[in-house]
Design brief:
The chain is α/β, with parallel strands linked by helices. It contains 19 helices and 18 strands. The protein is globular, with a radius of gyration of 25 Å.
């Protein structure tokens, strides 16, 4: 391991003694407290009474299963913990997903939560499941699933929790859920191991989870897997059967051959699962940390007071960089050109990385050109890129159109789209309009996208979208020769702003699984260290070429 990167240290200019810093910190802490409260609800799954029923039957809660499966005292990077927030389903989406370590090997774990609808799959849990398999595929990680699922949620619009209507399974969800079958078979084709530990009943689509896995572990008198349970079999064929003879663990181990290992109980199944991972002979193909890690010289705790609740108030993105990089070192690239984007080279937990962050929100023609150049450089030297998003879009206006904003913005988008090195995006502030695409938004196949509680994600700012619609209404009235109702318009504008503001909040985005989770700003460096280790499970190779640039 070599010495620290030969780069200057960023000296922080953040004044932590000001009233503004204190107010910002208080606002951030309030957001974090709400998130902690929600995470407590997530751990309850379908409710305490369901956990008590599990325990009475000698079964572990889903998080206890995961904890016992992973190596002691190792991190578990949970994905989309707050999925389904404020929806018809319990927060968490009825499943737990994340990346942990088993016998020193990084693995993806996806687990049905039997306390939520008996593990039945719905739009949120299916999206979470698909995302878990994407992470396994893109980063070349063994994939393990803890199976206990009643199949699809067949309530057809019945009431979920919070009295809200559950979306019907037919249509979008039913069609999209087939993607999970594709993904798990794709993993096997790519020689990425898939392992199922069946903890209970798995019916219909749930039966295909072990059916499409490389290795299956069943538990005596507990695992039951069948396409149709006894009631459906009787209705379809008139045949009488019971769970054990139809799809019990013993039958699948002795007769059908679906079970490869037969465990005595849950802990024995977990032990066997760990043994299977140990014999995979799994090796990372990417880079190891090459640079000696150093703690930042500036305290990550201070990130709590950096971002103003009013995201229109700017902050220097270097104040984030100096609190996440090794030794706060950062070799800035083109510091005098295109200053609205800051980019340069650093290391985090010993992994070399390129960093690209917004400074001021708006992307100008020169900053777009600079960003495109930098992304290409990172691909030339095969290093991942970290995008720190606080973007409100591309600049508009006659002068900027004549300066080639569209062409230079397209160059930036082209570079990011065709980049082949891993992208990790952290949304620290605004993520608005086409700027989010240029800064490697979720649509750009990022390896990971995390957001701070301060983040706001929208196609346009609340005031802007409400104002544009007001202008449209005013124009319509003028064309019709009608008197424009100013009072009514003001009410509509206020209502539209409030709705857009609410819809843009971090919790709304993470509820829809539009990111991989909300993180505490203080944990950013640790999360990035884990992510950089994960993305190096696969070779890190830059793009061999790019599309046509309109010069």
């Amino acid at each position: 391991m070599s010495n620290p990167l030969l780069a200057p240290q960023i000296k922080s200019k953040l004044d932590t003694s000001t009233e503004t810093f204190s107010e910002n910190k208080t606002a951030m802490m309030e957001k974090l407290e709400k998130i902690e409260e929600l995470l407590d609800y997530v751990e309850l799954g379908g409710g305490m009474h369901h956990h008590e029923r599990l325990a009475a039957r000698g079964k572990m809660a889903v998080r206890d299963r995961i904890s016992n499966f992973l190596d002691p005292d190792t991190p578990f990077l949970e994905i989309s913990a707050l999925a389904a927030y404020d929806s018809a389903y319990p927060i968490g989406g009825g499943a737990v997903a994340g990346i942990g370590i088993v016998g020193g090997t990084e693995v993806v774990v996806f687990a049905n939560d039997p306390t939520v609808l008996a593990g039945a799959m719905h739009a949120y849990s299916t999206k979470k499941w698909t995302r878990a398999m994407e992470i396994a595929r893109d980063n070349r990680l063994p994939y393990i699933q803890f199976v206990e699922s009643a199949g699809g949620d067949l309530r057809m619009g019945g009431k979920g929790s919070r009295g809200k209507s559950a979306p019907p399974i037919m249509g979008g969800h039913f069609a999209e859920s087939g993607r999970t079958f594709y993904e798990i078979t794709e993993l096997s084709k790519l020689r990425i191991p898939t392992i199922s530990i069946v903890f209970g009943s798995s019916t219909a689509g749930g039966a295909y989870q072990p059916g499409m896995s490389d290795y299956n572990i069943f538990i005596k008198k507990q695992s039951k897997v069948f396409l149709g349970g006894p009631p459906l079999v009787k209705m379809a064929t008139g045949e009488e059967s019971d769970d054990e003879t139809l799809g019990g663990a013993q039958m699948h181990a002795e007769t059908s051959g679906l079970a490869d290992y037969l465990a005595e109980d849950e802990m024995d199944a977990i032990r066997i699962g760990r043994e299977v991972v140990s014999h995979l002979n799994w090796r990372k193909r990417g880079n190891k940390p090459l640079i000696k890690p150093e703690e930042p010289i500036n305290d990550p705790e201070e990130l709590l007071g950096l971002v103003d609740p009013d995201l229109k108030k700017p902050f220097d993105i270097r104040e984030v960089i100096t609190r996440i990089t090794d030794g706060s070192r950062f070799e800035e690239f083109k510091p005098l050109f295109g200053p609205n984007i800051v980019c340069g080279f650093a290391s985090i937990h010993g992994y070399q990385i390129g960093i690209l962050g917004n400074n001021g929100g708006i992307i100008y023609p020169d900053s777009a050109q600079k960003g495109a150049h930098f992304v290409q450089l990172c691909n030339q030297i095969d290093i991942p890129i970290l995008f720190l998003q606080n973007v409100t879009g591309f600049i508009v206006g006659k002068d900027y159109e004549r300066a080639g904003q569209i062409k230079k913005g397209a160059q930036f988008l082209n570079s990011v789209s065709n980049s082949n090195v891993p992208h990790i995006t952290i949304i620290v502030g605004s993520s608005i309009g086409a700027g989010t695409y240029a800064m490697s938004g979720r649509a750009y196949n990022n390896r990971f996208t995390f957001i701070w509680p301060s983040a706001k994600i929208a196609v346009m700012g609340p005031k802007q979208i409400a104002g544009v619609m007001s202008i449209v209404r005013r124009g319509q009235a003028a064309r019709k020769g009608e008197k424009f109702n100013e009072k009514e318009d003001a009410q509509i504008v206020a209502m539209a702003e409030a709705m857009q503001e609410e819809g843009s909040l971090a919790l709304r985005a993470t509820s829809a699984i539009s990111d991989d989770g909300v993180i505490d700003p203080r944990d950013t460096r640790s999360v990035l260290g884990i992510c950089l280790s994960i993305v190096n499970g696969k070779e890190v190779e830059g793009a061999p070429g790019y599309g046509v640039y309109r010069l």
